[in-house]
C-alpha cells in the first residue's frame, strides 16, 4: 500500500555525549527526548490497536463512567456497551458487509457517538479507516476515494450524495446499521474480541489520513497500528492510571482530523470519558465549545488557538478544568499570558505534531507549561534533528533549521506516491517536516514557520509567523497576516492599525527599512 521508511532507531537509549539539559548529542548531532523511554510491544508480535487499548483498560476495574458523551443531548455510551457494540459491529462488517483485513473504509460523517465504535470495529480485524471532512465537495470526495483505494464508504443521509457512483455505502443513521450494533454477543467483552478477528500485525496500515505534507497537493498518509500503539503507550505512561470517574476530555478537534482521530482512540485506551462536540454544539462555534466544557465539567480539552483566546474573553465557568492541550497553529504570547492570568490553576499545554509523524513534542509537567511560545519538549521515544535546509548540515542548540523526526509513530509512507516518499524520507529514515524550528538549551522546541512560507527579501529569509506574533502582541490588534507585496520587494502586514505605532513596535524587534 505504501513505501515503508527505513527502520528508525527509536528505542530511547541515549548514546554517549548527550546533554542532559537540552537532549543534544554531539556524537550523532541529534536531539533525544529528555523523558524516560516507554516500553513498547515487540514489533513482530501480532497486535491491533484495539487489542492494545483494551489490554490497558483490562489492567484496571471496568470504568463506571461513560466512554462517550454527546455534548448536545447528554446521551452516553458506557464502557461495557462500547465494548459490546465494537464486537457486534466487527462481526457484522465481516459477515454481512464482507470486509476483511486491508480493505479501506472511507468515512464521510460528522462527529457522532457511533463513529468511535466504527473506528474500533474496523481496526479490530485489520480494515483501514480513512476519515475525511464531511464538508468536502463531491469532486473532492471523489479524488480522495480514488487516492485511498476505498472499497466501501460509511456516511450519513446528508453526505451520501457526495460519494462516487458505484462505491458501496453504509448509512450510519439507518436502521440497518443500528441493527449491527445491537447484535447479541456472548458477553466476553474485550477478552473475546481478539478470538473472533483476523490476525493483525503492528505494521499493517490502520488509517489513511490526508495531508499536504511539505508540498501543496493532497497526499494520503498511511499510518500503521504501531503508530497509535506507540502514542497511546506514551500517554498512558506519562499520565498514569486514570482517576476513575474524574477524567472527562472534551474533543475539540473534528474526528476526521489527525488530532481528533488519535484523541478518540486514546480516550478509550486511558479509560476517559470523551465528550463529543456533535453538530448541534459545533454549529455554535467557539461559544458552543466553551459552554460544553463548563456544562459537562470536563477536566481536559483539546483546543485551537481561537478557542483559547475566546476562553479568556467569554464569561465561563470551568472550575473542573485542569488541562488544555493547544495546537494546530501558533498561539500569540499575549493570548497565552492572558489565559494563565484568567485560569491560574489550568495547565495550558502547547504541543506540536503532524499527520505524518504523530505527536512530536508536548508540554507535560506544570513547570514546562510556563515556557510561553514553546511547543514543549520532544516526546518519549522520539528523536529529532535540526538541519540547514540548503546544505543538510546538522545544527546544534539554538540554531534554526528544518526539523527532521523519526520514531515509532511516524507514517509508513504516502499511498501510491513514490515521488513524495522519496522527497519526504532520507536514507536513514528521517522524515522531513518542512518546518523551520530550533531547540533551546533546556530542550524546548520552538516552531518558527513553514519553510515553504519563508519570504526571501534582499538575501534574508523572513518567517511571516515571527512578524505576525510581534503584531499580535499589540493589544489593539486582534489578528494579523504577513505576506510579500505584489512587487516582491517588501513584506506587507495586513492589519488595521496606526502605521506609525506599528513601525515603532516593529523597530524594537527587527530592522525596518523604508
From TrEMBL:
Q: Where is the AMP-dependent synthetase/ligase domain?
A: 62-414
Compositional bias (Low complexity): 1-13
The molecule here is called 4-coumarate--CoA ligase
Q: Which Pfam families match?
A: AMP-binding
Biological-process GO terms, alphabetical: phenylpropanoid metabolic process
**Its Enzyme Commission number?**
6.2.1.12
Where are the bilayer-spanning segments? Answer: none
Checking InterPro entries in the record gives: AMP-bd_C_sf, AMP-binding_CS, AMP-dep_synth/lig_dom, ANL_N_sf
According to the UniProt record, where is the region Disordered?
1-21
Q: Which residues form the signal peptide?
A: none
What keywords is this UniProt entry annotated with? ATP-binding, Ligase, Nucleotide-binding
Top-level taxon of the source organism: Eukaryota
Per its UniProt record, the required cofactor names are: Mg(2+)
What's the catalysed reaction? (E)-4-coumaroyl-AMP + CoA = (E)-4-coumaroyl-CoA + AMP + H(+); (E)-4-coumarate + ATP + H(+) = (E)-4-coumaroyl-AMP + diphosphate; (E)-4-coumarate + ATP + CoA = (E)-4-coumaroyl-CoA + AMP + diphosphate
Task: Report the GO molecular function annotations.
Answer: 4-coumarate-CoA ligase activity; ATP binding; trans-cinnamate-CoA ligase activity
Amino acid at each position: 500500500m505504501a513505501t515503508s521508511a527505513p527502520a528508525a532507531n527509536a528505542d530511547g537509549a541515549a548514546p554517549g555525549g548527550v546533554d542532559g539539559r537540552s537532549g543534544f548529542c554531539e556524537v550523532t548531532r541529534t536531539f533525544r527526548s529528555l523523558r524516560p523511554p516507554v516500553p513498547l510491544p515487540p514489533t513482530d508480535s501480532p497486535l491491533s490497536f484495539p487489542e492494545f487499548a483494551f489490554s490497558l483498560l483490562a489492567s484496571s476495574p471496568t470504568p463506571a463512567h461513560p466512554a462517550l458523551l454527546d455534548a448536545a443531548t447528554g446521551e452516553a455510551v458506557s464502557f461495557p456497551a462500547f465494548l459490546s457494540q465494537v464486537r457486534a459491529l466487527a462481526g457484522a462488517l465481516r459477515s454481512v458487509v464482507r470486509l476483511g483485513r486491508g480493505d479501506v473504509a472511507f468515512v464521510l460523517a460528522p462527529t457522532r457517538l457511533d463513529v468511535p465504535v466504527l473506528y474500533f470495529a474496523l481496526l479490530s480485524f485489520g480494515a483501514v479507516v480513512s476519515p475525511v471532512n464531511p464538508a468536502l465537495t463531491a469532486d473532492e470526495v471523489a479524488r480522495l476515494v480514488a487516492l485511498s483505494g476505498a472499497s466501501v464508504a460509511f456516511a450519513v443521509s446528508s453526505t451520501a450524495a457526495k460519494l462516487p457512483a458505484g462505491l458501496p455505502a453504509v448509512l450510519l443513521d439507518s436502521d440497518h446499521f443500528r441493527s449491527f450494533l445491537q447484535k447479541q454477543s456472548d458477553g466476553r467483552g474485550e477478552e473475546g474480541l481478539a478470538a473472533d478477528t483476523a490476525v493483525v500485525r503492528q505494521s499493517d496500515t490502520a488509517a489513511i489520513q490526508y495531508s499536504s505534507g511539505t508540498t501543496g497537493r493532497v497526499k494520503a498518509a498511511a499510518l500503521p497500528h504501531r503508530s497509535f500503539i506507540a502514542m497511546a503507550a506514551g500517554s498512558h505512561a506519562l499520565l498514569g492510571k486514570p482517576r476513575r470517574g474524574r477524567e472527562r476530555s472534551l474533543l475539540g478537534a473534528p474526528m476526521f482530523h489527525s488530532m481528533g482521530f488519535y484523541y478518540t482512540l486514546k480516550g478509550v485506551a486511558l479509560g476517559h470519558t470523551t465528550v463529543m462536540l456533535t453538530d448541534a454544539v459545533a454549529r455554535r462555534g467557539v461559544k458552543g465549545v466553551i459552554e460544553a466544557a463548563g456544562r459537562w465539567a470536563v477536566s481536559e480539552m483539546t483546543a485551537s488557538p481561537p478557542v483559547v483566546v475566546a476562553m479568556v474573553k467569554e464569561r465561563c465557568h470551568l472550575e473542573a478544568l485542569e488541562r488544555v492541550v493547544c495546537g494546530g497553529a501558533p498561539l500569540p504570547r499575549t493570548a497565552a499570558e492572558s489565559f494563565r492570568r484568567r485560569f491560574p490553576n489550568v495547565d495550558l499545554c502547547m504541543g506540536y505534531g503532524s499527520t505524518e509523524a504523530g505527536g512530536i513534542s508536548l508540554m507535560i509537567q506544570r513547570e514546562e507549561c510556563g515556557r510561553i511560545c514553546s511547543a514543549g519538549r520532544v516526546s518519549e521515544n522520539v528523536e529529532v534533528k535540526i538541519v540547514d535546509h540548503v546544505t543538510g548540515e546538522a545544527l546544534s542548540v539554538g540554531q534554526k533549521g528544518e526539523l527532521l523526526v523519526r520514531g515509532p509513530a511516524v507514517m509508513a509512507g504516502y499511498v501510491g506516491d513514490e515521488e513524495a516518499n522519496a522527497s519526504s524520507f532520507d536514507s536513514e529514515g528521517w522524515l522531513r517536516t518542512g518546518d523551520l524550528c530550533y531547540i533551546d538549551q533546556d530542550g524546548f522546541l520552538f516552531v518558527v514557520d513553514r519553510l515553504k512560507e519563508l519570504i526571501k527579501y534582499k538575501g534574508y529569509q523572513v518567517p511571516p509567523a515571527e512578524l505576525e506574533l510581534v503584531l499580535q502582541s499589540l493589544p489593539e490588534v486582534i489578528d494579523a497576516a504577513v505576506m510579500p507585496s505584489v512587487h516582491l520587494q517588501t513584506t506587507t502586514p495586513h492589519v488595521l492599525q496606526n502605521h506609525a505605532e506599528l513601525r515603532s513596535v516593529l523597530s524594537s524587534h527587527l530592522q525596518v527599512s523604508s
